[in-house]
Amino acid sequence: MQATFAATLFDEWRRAGLADVVLAPGSRSTPLALAAAATEGLTLHVRLDERSAAFFALGRALASARPVAVVVTSGTAAAELHAAVAEADLARVPLLVVTADRPPELRGVGAPQTILQSHLYGPMVRLFEEPGVARAEAAPTWRPLAERLYSAARGRRGEPGPVHLNAAFVEPLVGTAYDLPVARAETDGPDPGPVAAGDLDLAGRAVLCVVGLGTSAETAARARAADWAVVGDATVPNTLAHADVVARDDALAAWLAPEVVVRLGGAPASRALAARLADWGVPVVALDGAGPVADPDGVVTRRRIGRPDPTDPTHRGDPRYAARWAAVSEAIESYLAERPDEVLDEPAVARAVVAVANDEGVDLVVGSSMPVRDVEWWAPPRRGRVFANRGANGIDGVVSTALGVAAGSRALALVGDLTFLHDVSGLVSGLGAAGGSLVLVVVDNRGGGIFSFLAQRALLAPERFEALFGTPHGHDLVAVARAFGARATRVGDAAALAAEVAAGLAAGGLHVVVATVPERDENVERHDRLIEGAVRAAGALR
């Protein structure tokens, strides 16, 4: 009976649109594994490590823009998914988290691989279901159960995100699925279209639109068409680059001060920009058309439903203000493009990786800490899709997320050395049976580079800072990657980096390119000099 139950779940999810199932091997999850493998139309990805499996599933969900199922056995295997569930919750990524469990009579009696799995992920999931051991008389409820979970993950009745099914199974675990319950008629209607935001009164005003995670390229395009100056984080393509430089300089910030700020989606990485939004003291309108608007600094003064509507005269801003921002962005970009490249530093790596992603038309995955900031602050505008785990902003699972994005396709990723080592187990399964091409660029500054920008660097003794924050790892990252079967090379200049990235994409498979950059304190100094030069280039326009 439980084989039929599991087969019904996957059949219903396939009918709803499920295409990818990520499986970590285990015994108690046998009925689920056999059902997923037997369901036509599903691609099965097998990963050895549950934590990596969950982030791989997250990457597949990001790339496909649809729910992905991740299936694991009982016990700590279920706990391994927790970090990815947290990211999916905050980033609103649809995941079907399916954990197998012991039956109630084996809980609390010392049975192996048994922990408390009920509500394991707490309020992070949109829906939790625990139907118990499958019974014949409950068969009519199986398809509605699957439909509820899939709909909740998609966000049909709220925000998209992870859902959790905790399914108990008894031995024998291998069985034959019999006739499935009859499929119901389709019940979901079409997705609602965009809603225009009313009562904005932006006609002819200087509008700065700050966009973040969750803002689609189409929504950003609507904002630009409404004559808004659109700046944002690394995940939103075709925004004006280098807003962080503007925000750091008082004269530029005064010259480009808006009359109204519109916020869409998550928050960019730039603290300088966040501080300017507070300093300018102008109205800040949150539009929820890209999902909930992040407001960690409490600057939002009004909230409205909808998205920019360039056909509404009350939404049309001052085109001269938008053009001024564009001119400043272009002046800074020209300065960065023309600077000598005798040293491959971290901003130069970010610029080179984004340039190749733009030229090759491939997805880009950006790691947390400095890579996401260097892409946001120093790279040219992104033309294609960019993904980053910006929900929880952690470094865990980024390699696996990138592998999930690239599976069956092509992608580039940019991560730091600690991020790479933190998720090195993702290399065990690589791209898996789906194949594809991933070039993983690792910035090797021999430790945690972002901490050198913080007060800890100046306030602590050097040896204490290095031990607690710098955390030099001492590993040969090329050797590490090769030990897992990946092709790996080390580069020290921009031309070699671009050539290796292009060659890796063309060759297919997994290719790790380790970029040697200046030590961490020098990196801070080089960032400061870049800001000074960029400010001079933009200031010439005033």
Secondary-structure blueprint:
Elements: H1 2-16, E1 20-23, H2 30-38, E2 43-46, H3 50-64, E3 68-72, H4 76-79, H5 82-91, E4 95-101, E5 128-129, H6 142-154, E6 162-168, E7 207-211, H7 217-225, E8 229-232, H8 243-248, H9 250-255, E9 260-264, H10 271-280, E10 284-287, E11 302-304, H11 319-338, H12 346-360, E12 363-366, H13 370-378, E13 386-387, H14 398-406, E14 410-416, H15 417-422, E15 437-444, H16 455-459, H17 462-470, H18 477-483, E16 487-491, H19 494-507, E17 509-516, H20 520-539
Parallel strand pairs: 1-2, 1-3, 3-4, 4-6, 5-6, 7-8, 7-9, 9-10, 10-11, 12-13, 12-14, 14-15, 15-17, 16-17
Structure in words:
This protein is of the alpha/beta class and 542 residues long. It has 3 domains: 2-168, Rossmann fold, CATH 3.40.50.970; 207-332, 3-Layer(aba) Sandwich (Rossmann fold), CATH 3.40.50; 340-538, Thiamin diphosphate (ThDP)-binding fold, Pyr/PP domains (Rossmann fold, 3-Layer(aba) Sandwich), CATH 3.40.50.970. The protein is 39% helix and 15% strand. It is built from 20 helices and 17 strands. Strands 2-1-3-4-6-5 form a 6-stranded parallel β-sheet, with helices on both faces. Strands 13-12-14-15-17-16 form a 6-stranded parallel β-sheet, with helices on both faces. Strands 8-7-9-10-11 form a 5-stranded parallel β-sheet. Helix 11 (319-338) packs across helix 20 and helix 12 (346-360) crosses helix 13 (370-378). The longest helix is centred in the middle third of the chain and has 20 residues, at 319-338. It starts with a helix and ends with a helix.
